[in-house]
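In response to reviewer comment 3 from the previous cycle, which asked for concrete evidence that the modeling workflow produces usable outputs, we include below a single protein chain processed end to end. The sequence was submitted unchanged, and the resulting structure tokens are shown without manual editing.
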Amino acid sequence: MALTNEQYDSLMRLYNHKQMRNNQIVAYRTKELYSAIPSLTTLDQEVTDISISSISAMFDGADMSQTTASSKQKLAELKKKREHMIVDAGFPADYLEPPYDCPDCKDTGYINGKRCHCFKQAAINIVYKQSNISTILSKENFDAYDLTLFSDDYYEKENGLSARATAQKALEDAKNFVQNFKQDGGNLLLLGQTGCGKTFLSNCIAKALLDEGVSVIYFTAFELFDIFEKQVFKKNIDVADLHDQIFDCDLLIIDDLGTELPNSFTTSRLFQCLNERLLRNKSTIISTNYNLALLRDTYSERITSRIFSCYKIIEFLGEDIRMKKIINK
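The workflow returned the following structure tokens.
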């Protein structure tokens, strides 16, 4: 499931295409400006001449500190004059800035030799065949979140909130999580019985953050531990990159924790995963059918203490919404 050479080459061709597109747009706009502002050609030539003079002075042994300072000052003045000319002609001041899809890496895919977040997400999309997940997310997102599916007459907790009121609060918490994610990050623990909306809400969060360029990986607990098993016991090189992405992605979603077969291996790997992501300030969402007591009894104290202290808990109440949807069809 790691990137093959063909997949990597395909991604790099995509980034090369973006750069070519940006260059073509800038070239077209430059021609447009030269036509609208003929004097801009002379100004740009002056900028070029100053740059060439600086290089020549360096080879001639001139005092570079003085030359550089003088050149920088002249170039700054010309840049300011250029912007005024462009704006006065009715164009945006940044009209010649390339229209990057990702301003962070300027559509190269790399920042200081390291893969940009946009490249990581593009790789994740390929590795996971995210197109299938994208189909799901087109249906399971905040716009499609239907509070009427939750009963206003179903009560289960001592706080006096109905299933619908609890779902309303969960929705608000999820939207706040998304809104503050880039600044604050954070971790969520979604609790509730099967079919009560945990996975749907996770998908809502994933869709919103993916739209903002955040790298998101989704796994069921079974899939997650299968990757760990292949990496540890079988030394499977096909999952090496995927294993690294589990720790590096901005948001890891672990769905249905507890549906795997808990044992010493899964417990130790879960601790490593959650602890390492906390150390790296990476965010995690865990959903589970277990209640807090069962989580504590199933997993080690090291795991539950980290979850209880570092995760915001969102609880769901009510009947199986999936069954309700089927019945109402």
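The longest strand covers residues 251-257. We consider this sufficient to address the reviewer's concern, and the full set will be provided in the supplementary archive.
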